[in-house]
Protein backbone atom coordinates (compact mmCIF):
# COMPACT_ATOMS: atom_id res chain seq x y z
CA UNK A 1 0.00 0.00 0.00
CA UNK A 2 1.23 3.46 -0.86
CA UNK A 3 1.55 5.55 2.28
CA UNK A 4 2.52 9.11 2.99
CA UNK A 5 0.97 12.51 2.80
CA UNK A 6 -1.15 13.60 -0.14
CA UNK A 7 1.66 15.52 -1.82
CA UNK A 8 4.02 12.52 -1.77
CA UNK A 9 1.33 10.21 -3.14
CA UNK A 10 0.38 12.77 -5.81
CA UNK A 11 4.01 12.98 -6.94
CA UNK A 12 4.25 9.19 -7.01
CA UNK A 13 1.06 8.58 -9.04
CA UNK A 14 1.61 11.40 -11.55
CA UNK A 15 1.89 9.71 -14.98
CA UNK A 16 2.74 6.36 -13.34
CA UNK A 17 0.08 3.74 -14.24
CA UNK A 18 1.64 1.07 -12.00
CA UNK A 19 1.52 3.34 -8.93
CA UNK A 20 -2.01 4.49 -9.83
CA UNK A 21 -3.13 0.85 -10.05
CA UNK A 22 -1.65 -0.02 -6.64
CA UNK A 23 -3.07 3.08 -4.94
CA UNK A 24 -6.58 2.75 -6.37
CA UNK A 25 -6.73 -1.02 -5.80
CA UNK A 26 -5.81 -0.50 -2.15
CA UNK A 27 -8.56 2.09 -1.75
CA UNK A 28 -11.20 0.05 -3.62
CA UNK A 29 -10.44 -3.11 -1.62
CA UNK A 30 -13.04 -2.59 1.11
CA UNK A 31 -15.79 -1.33 -1.27
CA UNK A 32 -16.10 1.88 0.79
CA UNK A 33 -17.32 4.83 -1.27
CA UNK A 34 -15.56 7.51 0.81
CA UNK A 35 -12.15 5.91 0.39
CA UNK A 36 -12.82 5.36 -3.31
CA UNK A 37 -13.92 8.98 -3.90
CA UNK A 38 -10.95 10.37 -1.99
CA UNK A 39 -8.49 8.21 -3.93
CA UNK A 40 -10.02 9.11 -7.30
CA UNK A 41 -9.92 12.79 -6.34
CA UNK A 42 -6.26 12.66 -5.33
CA UNK A 43 -5.23 10.82 -8.50
CA UNK A 44 -7.19 13.28 -10.65
CA UNK A 45 -5.66 16.35 -8.97
CA UNK A 46 -2.17 14.87 -9.36
CA UNK A 47 -2.43 15.20 -13.13
CA UNK A 48 -2.84 18.05 -15.57
CA UNK A 49 -6.63 18.13 -15.44
CA UNK A 50 -7.12 19.81 -18.81
CA UNK A 51 -5.16 17.09 -20.63
CA UNK A 52 -6.73 14.36 -18.48
CA UNK A 53 -10.21 15.68 -19.32
CA UNK A 54 -9.36 15.62 -23.02
CA UNK A 55 -8.13 12.03 -22.77
CA UNK A 56 -11.24 10.99 -20.81
CA UNK A 57 -13.60 12.69 -23.25
CA UNK A 58 -15.02 14.95 -20.55
CA UNK A 59 -15.02 18.69 -20.05
CA UNK A 60 -12.52 20.04 -17.54
CA UNK A 61 -15.19 21.42 -15.21
CA UNK A 62 -17.09 18.13 -15.39
CA UNK A 63 -13.94 16.24 -14.40
CA UNK A 64 -13.37 18.57 -11.44
CA UNK A 65 -16.99 18.31 -10.32
CA UNK A 66 -17.19 14.54 -10.75
CA UNK A 67 -13.90 13.67 -9.07
CA UNK A 68 -13.65 16.50 -6.57
CA UNK A 69 -14.50 14.05 -3.78
CA UNK A 70 -17.90 15.51 -2.95
CA UNK A 71 -20.31 13.74 -5.31
CA UNK A 72 -20.88 10.09 -6.08
CA UNK A 73 -19.43 9.59 -9.60
CA UNK A 74 -21.17 7.56 -12.26
CA UNK A 75 -19.59 4.27 -13.26
CA UNK A 76 -19.05 5.30 -16.90
CA UNK A 77 -17.09 8.39 -15.83
CA UNK A 78 -14.93 6.32 -13.50
CA UNK A 79 -14.16 3.90 -16.35
CA UNK A 80 -13.35 6.79 -18.71
CA UNK A 81 -11.02 8.32 -16.12
CA UNK A 82 -9.24 5.00 -15.62
CA UNK A 83 -8.78 4.63 -19.37
CA UNK A 84 -7.35 8.16 -19.57
CA UNK A 85 -4.89 7.22 -16.79
CA UNK A 86 -3.78 4.11 -18.77
CA UNK A 87 -5.19 1.67 -16.21
CA UNK A 88 -8.09 -0.79 -16.38
CA UNK A 89 -10.62 -2.06 -13.87
CA UNK A 90 -11.29 -5.71 -13.25
CA UNK A 91 -13.27 -7.59 -10.64
CA UNK A 92 -11.67 -10.12 -8.31
CA UNK A 93 -12.98 -12.15 -5.36
CA UNK A 94 -12.66 -10.36 -2.03
CA UNK A 95 -9.53 -11.24 -0.08
CA UNK A 96 -11.52 -13.19 2.51
CA UNK A 97 -12.85 -15.59 -0.15
CA UNK A 98 -10.52 -18.50 -0.90
CA UNK A 99 -11.82 -19.68 -4.27
CA UNK A 100 -12.71 -17.49 -7.24
CA UNK A 101 -16.43 -17.19 -7.75
CA UNK A 102 -18.35 -17.44 -10.99
CA UNK A 103 -19.78 -13.97 -10.39
CA UNK A 104 -16.28 -12.48 -10.13
CA UNK A 105 -15.40 -14.08 -13.45
CA UNK A 106 -18.55 -12.78 -15.16
CA UNK A 107 -18.09 -9.29 -13.71
CA UNK A 108 -14.46 -9.26 -14.74
CA UNK A 109 -15.54 -10.09 -18.29
CA UNK A 110 -18.02 -7.20 -18.10
CA UNK A 111 -15.25 -4.78 -17.11
CA UNK A 112 -13.04 -6.02 -19.96
CA UNK A 113 -15.14 -4.16 -22.55
CA UNK A 114 -13.64 -1.05 -24.08
CA UNK A 115 -16.79 1.04 -23.93
CA UNK A 116 -18.54 1.87 -20.60
CA UNK A 117 -21.99 1.31 -22.14
CA UNK A 118 -21.11 -2.33 -22.85
CA UNK A 119 -19.84 -2.74 -19.28
CA UNK A 120 -23.08 -1.33 -17.86
CA UNK A 121 -25.18 -3.62 -20.08
CA UNK A 122 -23.20 -6.70 -19.04
CA UNK A 123 -23.39 -5.66 -15.37
CA UNK A 124 -27.16 -5.56 -15.85
CA UNK A 125 -27.12 -9.11 -17.25
CA UNK A 126 -25.20 -10.37 -14.22
CA UNK A 127 -27.58 -8.67 -11.78
CA UNK A 128 -30.71 -9.92 -13.57
CA UNK A 129 -29.38 -13.48 -13.49
CA UNK A 130 -29.53 -13.38 -9.67
CA UNK A 131 -32.56 -13.64 -7.40
CA UNK A 132 -33.33 -9.91 -7.50
CA UNK A 133 -35.64 -9.98 -4.48
CA UNK A 134 -33.00 -11.43 -2.16
CA UNK A 135 -30.33 -9.23 -3.77
CA UNK A 136 -32.46 -6.13 -3.03
CA UNK A 137 -32.91 -7.30 0.56
CA UNK A 138 -29.13 -7.69 1.00
CA UNK A 139 -28.47 -4.30 -0.59
CA UNK A 140 -31.10 -2.67 1.61
CA UNK A 141 -33.00 -1.15 -1.31
CA UNK A 142 -36.28 -1.88 -3.05
CA UNK A 143 -36.45 -4.46 -5.84
CA UNK A 144 -37.62 -1.81 -8.30
CA UNK A 145 -34.55 0.27 -7.43
CA UNK A 146 -32.31 -2.68 -8.30
CA UNK A 147 -34.02 -3.00 -11.69
CA UNK A 148 -33.82 0.75 -12.25
CA UNK A 149 -30.18 1.11 -11.15
CA UNK A 150 -28.86 -2.01 -12.86
CA UNK A 151 -31.33 -2.26 -15.73
CA UNK A 152 -28.69 -1.50 -18.34
CA UNK A 153 -30.08 1.86 -19.42
CA UNK A 154 -29.09 3.98 -16.39
CA UNK A 155 -25.48 4.76 -15.57
CA UNK A 156 -25.20 3.55 -11.93
CA UNK A 157 -23.50 5.58 -9.23
CA UNK A 158 -20.19 4.19 -7.95
CA UNK A 159 -21.60 3.78 -4.41
CA UNK A 160 -24.33 1.43 -5.69
CA UNK A 161 -21.79 -0.57 -7.70
CA UNK A 162 -19.52 -0.91 -4.65
CA UNK A 163 -22.51 -1.99 -2.51
CA UNK A 164 -23.36 -4.60 -5.12
CA UNK A 165 -19.75 -5.82 -5.11
CA UNK A 166 -19.81 -6.05 -1.30
CA UNK A 167 -22.95 -8.20 -1.55
CA UNK A 168 -21.32 -10.43 -4.19
CA UNK A 169 -18.11 -10.57 -2.06
CA UNK A 170 -15.97 -9.23 -4.89
CA UNK A 171 -13.91 -6.08 -5.23
CA UNK A 172 -12.78 -3.70 -7.93
CA UNK A 173 -9.10 -3.98 -8.73
CA UNK A 174 -7.15 -1.58 -10.94
CA UNK A 175 -4.30 -2.81 -13.13
CA UNK A 176 -2.04 -1.03 -15.63
CA UNK A 177 -3.22 -1.27 -19.24
CA UNK A 178 -1.34 -3.84 -21.27
CA UNK A 179 -1.60 -1.64 -24.35
CA UNK A 180 -1.40 2.01 -23.28
CA UNK A 181 -2.84 4.39 -25.82
CA UNK A 182 -0.41 6.63 -27.64
CA UNK A 183 -0.97 10.19 -26.51
CA UNK A 184 1.07 13.35 -26.78
CA UNK A 185 3.16 13.94 -23.66
CA UNK A 186 1.34 15.73 -20.89
CA UNK A 187 2.77 19.06 -19.78
CA UNK A 188 3.87 19.43 -16.20
CA UNK A 189 1.52 20.92 -13.64
CA UNK A 190 1.15 24.67 -13.45
CA UNK A 191 2.26 27.44 -15.73
CA UNK A 192 5.61 27.32 -17.45
CA UNK A 193 8.29 29.32 -15.72
CA UNK A 194 9.17 32.63 -17.23
CA UNK A 195 12.66 32.84 -18.56
CA UNK A 196 14.47 36.06 -18.09
CA UNK A 197 15.88 37.48 -21.24
CA UNK A 198 18.87 39.73 -20.86
CA UNK A 199 18.60 42.88 -22.85
CA UNK A 200 21.67 44.19 -24.59
Automatic annotation (TrEMBL):
Molecular functions (GO terms): DNA binding
Biased composition (Basic residues): 183-194
Signal peptide: none
Region (Disordered): 177-200
Protein's recorded name: Transcriptional regulator
Species, as recorded: Bradyrhizobium barranii subsp. barranii
Amino acid sequence: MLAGNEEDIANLVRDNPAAIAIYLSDNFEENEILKAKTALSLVTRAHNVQILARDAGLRRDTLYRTFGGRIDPQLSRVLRLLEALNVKARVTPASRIASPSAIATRLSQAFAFDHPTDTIRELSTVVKSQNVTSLARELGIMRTTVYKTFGGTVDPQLSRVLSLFETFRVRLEVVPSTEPKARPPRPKLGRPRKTLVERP
